[in-house]
What we know:
alpha+beta; 28 helices
Amino acid sequence: MPGENLSRDEAQERAALLSVDGYEVSLDLRSAVGTAEAGARTFRSVTTIRFRCSEPGAATFADLIAPSVTAVSLNGRDLDPGEVFDGTRIRLEDLAAENELVVDAQCAYSRTGEGMHRFVDPEDGETYLYTQYEPADSRRVFANFEQPDLKAPFRFEARAPEGWVVWSNGVGELTDGVWKFAETKPISTYITAIVAGPYHYVTDSYSRTFDDGTTLEIPLGAMCRKGLAPHFDADDVFLVTKQGLDFFHDHFDYPYPFGKYDQAFVPEYNLGAMENPGLVTFREEYIFRGKVTQASYEGRANVVLHEMAHMWFGDLVTMEWWDDLWLKESFADFMGAFALVGATRFKDGWITFANRRKAWAYRADQLPSTHPVTADIRDLQDAKLNFDGITYAKGASVLKQLVAYVGQDAFLEGARRYFKRNAYGNTRLGDLLSALEETSGRDLATWSRAWLQTAGVNSLTPQVILGADGRVAELSVLQEAAESHPELRPHRVAVGLYRRETRPDGEAGPLVRYARVETDVDGPRTVVGELAGADAPELVLVNDDDLTYCKIRFDETSLATLRELLGDITDPLARALCWSALWNLTRDGLMPARDFVGLVLRFAGRESDIGVLQTLHAWTDSALTHYVAPDWRETGGRLLAEGALKELRLAEPGSQHQLAWARFFAAVASGPDDLRLLQDLLDGTAKIDGLDVDQELRWALLEPLAAHGVADESALAAELARDDTASGKRHQVRCLAARPSAAVKAQAWAQVVESDTLSNALVEATIAGFSQASQRELIAPYAEKYFAAIERIWAERSIQIGMDVVRGLFPSLRDSQETLDATDAWLAAHESAAPALRRLVLEARDDLARALRGQRHDAGTAG
């Protein structure tokens, strides 16, 4: 049998053979208590599956990843576990028309965030459990048919240590020492869930009366570790939750179908969140231990709404196989922003979407691994890697374009019909398109082929011809595509013309839009006739208002205007789109990276949107690390530190902009005076008016001090004593690995690559500390070790840890042709390696090659 992987062909064969009537799952979690070192490694899992077979006498298999199986019974016949179970699958032969399978197994607690994750809080010794399954890790907790189209009702029960509470998808109650949960509606295996432990739990409720007079009551709950309870702002979580439920009820015309709505913020979580119906799980970093900017609250609200949208797109109606993952993730990503703007206090959500989410999509769509939104997913490893910027952010961007194409009312009415026709079922692309065609009256086959079934991103560039009178004689939009993905798509875009206003005193004022036209761009050149005769623009912004998915380019006049007047653009969305376009020019090697750094130094201090500002900080750090010529890095770093400190001192005391500049200053500080200031801020001997150096900011100041050899092991131990929590431990581990010592790097490497004792969160922290941009020479020797180790790592570790190691330890900081050649040599020598592993290496190679091109462009235009 083929191990843990499952192919699409196998899933289709099994789906044609079987239909599942229901699961009963009994878990005994009493072995979970104890310290991280001494606690038990396994728990008992007993599963009963009732299913039908369309071909009596046929054979199939059930999925289970477990250290051992105690007993297997099929239709009353006891099977020998040693003969039918190979560690990942249970062979089932001579099936009847109606079947009952009972599997009694010892399943393993996880430390990788996959399956039943077990966490021991170092602060108080308490143990916490939660499950995470997507795409296929429920088989680590109970025997099942692990594929999304074999939906069934589930009935869970669990025994837990005294004093614990257990939650699952349905409402639960404790009866005679057993937590028993109401049967679920038919759902897929990957969205079942268990959370158990001494969690801090807060309750609320939601009520909605519909037009027909019926009332829906939804019990609400929110939970976190006891150690985070003082920081837990559950009221704000509930506020967004209620606003979201109102919004989706208004627009979907289908009441929330899963009873209660619990939201669990859990430790060491690999994802942002997971849409388990009735029991959504989130990473606990969404509970803020210190002061954060409004962008963090907006981000959390967006995730809450993203997961809520999944209750309809994904849970109620589920894709048949992972090829159509976009049917849930693209919609949830779009609906998260749509609801954020429409229902909450975060009215600038589309700015964040344009600036941050689409940047993720643009990068992913230019990698060699890019794929259509509807992808070709051959197996589970493919599926795991396709939770990417294409499936989420590009898909959401395409849906935003679809709304512009068919109209919002037609789009939402199509969604309503889609829910009602396919409730508790599974769908493919055509099921949604047929509903949208009915409501919009448009033939979406051509649109779908162009937008959903081809890969790559188009570039749109304005071309302006002025007449003798100085007005626009002709304005056209040129569309280009990469040679590797030549599809030129139809775009519904807005083209905006901008110029400086003249103040009453005759002085030049802000840069404002004075003309806007919506038009359809199709083919290599489209004339925008409605703009003929307009006054000559200083800036032409193609894709104004961000209606479509494209890379925005500029004509020479517009680019020159941005170099001088970017900070004078009054509209925050237009400004964000320009920043995003300039970053794409930098990544594409069309603008010198030092020019981008210069624009940030000149204009970022005037940026009003805090999310855009923080994104600019991240992009600028990336530009300095990867895209500027190596001989300019020291100069660039000094200029950034000077500029960040200047803006920090100029920022309004106590403002979120001050906090953002403080964190950026810490990230780029390297000179003796800068490091001394960081140390003085930690010690309290220096103060900046309004800047509260809370515990989270203390760790942000400590990491550069550790990386530059100023803070030693004893200083980090003292800080951990001050913050002896799970969060503090992660920070300390990262800072320890950041120290500039060969022995430190060797130890960090061994802990991640040669051992599997660290949890997923500490693996992530160690990798982050190991890879410091200021330590290129120190970590250079590990390039050769990386290529020697990754195939073994991929074979021996879980896919999540394998992904973390292969991505995180790729020698991108050894940015030379030698590293590129070594990568090519590994790829050539490992053509038969797992396709998912090769994909990760190919992506890292592409990022490195892009960085080297950017460096050459930056060096070639210096002077």
